[in-house]
Amino acid sequence: MSRMPWHGVVVATALPFRDDLSVDLDAYAANLRALIDAGCDGVCPNGSLGEYQTLTNAERAAVVKTAVDTVGGDRVLAGVAAYGSMESRRWAEQAAQAGAQAVMLLPPNAYRADERSVLAHYKAVAEVGIPIVAYNNPIDTKVDLVPELLQKLHEAGYIRAVKEFTGDTRRAYRIKELTPDLDLLIGADDVLLELALAGAVGWISGYPNAIPHVCVDLYRAATAQDTQTALPLYRDLHPLLRWDSRTEFVQAIKLSMDLAGLHGGDCRPPRVPLLPDQYDAIKADTLRVLPLEEQARGRKQV
After folding, report:
1. Residues in Cβ contact with 261 at an 8 Å cutoff, skipping those fewer than 6 apart
2. CA 155 – CA 104 distance, rounded (Å)
3. Please, are residues 34 and 69 in contact by the beta-carbon 8 Å criterion?
4. How far apart are CA 50 and CA 9, in angstroms?
5. Pairing status of strand 77-79 against strand 102-105
6. Backbone angles phi, psi at 292, to 5 degrees
7. In terms of C-beta density within 10 A (0-12 exposed, 13-18 middle, 19 or more buried), how is residue 276 classed?
């Protein structure tokens, strides 16, 4: 099977802002190039890490265009979440016109949608004709794409893959039992090894924004079922990876990026700066793994 835009390490990219909190597309492009140079397979602009909810329409479109222009459309999985299906459909059309080869779509998130509404939502966006990765995040959306619903969405031809963020690793096996042809993607950094061993074919990832080389090494070992390599590395990285599943995940990853010499920076409101104890904990967790990142970078340069 040829590589699809959601296969491998696909980084849900953080978005850098200038001091006045305007979008810094030049810094964003530099970050994207660094990710691909480190061995990441693709990027996902306008996900939660990209603070898409705070962007104007023009900014959001420019982010997708920058991603496509920088890394190529075959490496871009564009986030198209919105409050309504009509808006999500428009963003899917924009992504396709910009050259992205696939999109990632949350269920309706303005209210607790029922099954019929979820099916109608994905049908409306699927009519654009661009492949869709469903994003299951019931923690934030209050809508749970349970395995049985994913089966209906896939059999209807609406979705090709699912980013599974619940943290319930048992679901991986149920999804595969019901829908063997639906691609399972790791949706949270701190269940990477468990879902990789369960057969995931991609990782929509957060922490490769800051430590891409060592995260690529971890993913490759995990999906190759090389637990001798993956398990000790996973244990070393896990205290940092856990921040990806916390409320402050955007601030945490941006801080780690700054510490790693990349363009992280501040967040737009309503996100507020980290508390001092949070800052200190993230800094300590990051500094602990930066030597592993440097080692991984060195191995790739040999």
Report:
1. none
2. 18
3. no
4. 17
5. parallel
6. -65, -40
7. exposed
pTM of the model: 0.97
Task: Fill in the amino acid letter for 275.
Answer: L
Express each pLDDT in 181-214 by its tens digit. Answer: 999 999 999 999 999 999 999 999 999 999 999 9
Query: Distances from the Cα of 202 to the Cαs of 242, 255, 268, in angstroms?
Result: 18, 25, 29
Q: What would the pLDDT profile of 86-138 be if each residue is shown by its tens digit?
A: 999 999 999 999 999 999 999 998 888 999 999 999 999 999 999 999 999 99
- What pLDDT score does 274 carry? 98
Integer-rounded Cα radius of gyration of the chain: 18
Q: Which two tokens stand for residue 169?
A: 């690793």
Token representation of residue 162: 């699912």
Of all residues in the chain, the percent with pLDDT exceeding 70 is: 99
